[in-house]
Amino acid sequence: MAAATLELWKVAKRFQGVVAVDCVSLTAAAGRVTGLIGPNGSGKTTTMNMITGLYPTDAGHIRLDGVDIARLPPHRVAALGVARTFQNIRLLATETTLANVLLGAHRHQSAGLLDVLLGLPAVKRSEARETARCEALLELIGISHLRDVPVGGLSYGDRRRVEIARALATKPRLLLLDEPAAGMNFAEKQALADLVLAIRDMGVTVLVIEHDIEFVARVSDHIVVLNFGREIAAGTPEEVRSMPSVIEAYLGTEDA
Ligand code: ADP
Ligand code: MG
Question: In total, how many domains does the chain have?
Answer without folding.
Answer: 1
